[in-house]
Design a protein that fits this description.
It is a single chain. This protein is α+β, with helices and mostly antiparallel strands and 174 residues long. The protein has two domains: 113 residues, Orthogonal Bundle (Jann2411-like fold); 51 residues, no CATH class. Helices cover 43% and strands 17% of the residues. The chain contains six helices and six strands. The strands form three sheets. Strands 1-2 form a two-stranded antiparallel sheet. Strands 3-4 form a two-stranded antiparallel ribbon. Strand 5 and strand 6 form a beta hairpin.
């Protein structure tokens, strides 16, 4: 079984970014194989069958989302989004908007890319990378004032406080 991930519960696009992390054993990648993909799909209630083509699509989306949130390029994200669209229909129960994906293996990747668009439309400044220099995790800042800095105060926030405290003790004149 893949290693447990350190930060769950983010919106789908950011959760996909968080399939890579660094722990005591070094860099980890949940999407190293289809077993990890199955875990990610289950954690996000995506009831689809994991496959090698889907793994490729999801990894492609992860890179595209990363480049988009870093402000490097939207081209890759747009290529992922080209794999589908929202189809709107009127049913007896009312209006429905459903993803319409040409190739089924692209559904999770497309959903993550579409989720990023929703986050960017709502509050792009609330998409943040953890401020700890050794952390690669991302989070959606839902704090009241938007000043959250750490993916988790219990881990990275406390590490930063401990580092500052140690520096003051060993270099009191600074």
């Amino acid at each position: 079984m893949p290693a447990p991930r350190p930060h769950l519960g983010e919106p789908l696009a950011l959760d996909l970014l968080n399939t890579r992390w660094i722990d005591a054993d070094g860099p980890q990648d949940l999407l190293a194989d289809t077993r990890g993909l199955r875990q990610w799909l289950a954690e996000n209630d995506l009831a689809v069958q994991a496959s090698e083509p889907m793994l490729h699509a999801v990894r492609t989306a992860r890179e595209a989302i990363l480049h988009a949130v870093r402000g490097e390029s939207a081209d890759e994200l747009n290529k992922v989004l080209e794999h589908g669209r929202i189809r709107r229909t009127l049913t007896p129960a009312g209006p429905v908007a459903e993803p319409d994906i040409r190739q089924a293996e692209w559904l999770p990747a497309w959903l993550a890319a579409d989720d990023l668009l929703n986050l960017l439309a709502a509050a792009p400044d609330r998409i943040k990378q953890c401020a700890h220099p050794n952390c690669v995790l991302w989070f959606h800042d839902t704090s009241k004032n938007g000043a959250r800095r750490w993916h988790s105060m219990a881990t990275c926030g406390n590490r930063a406080k401990a580092t500052r405290h140690y520096a003051k003790k060993t270099h009191p004149d600074e």
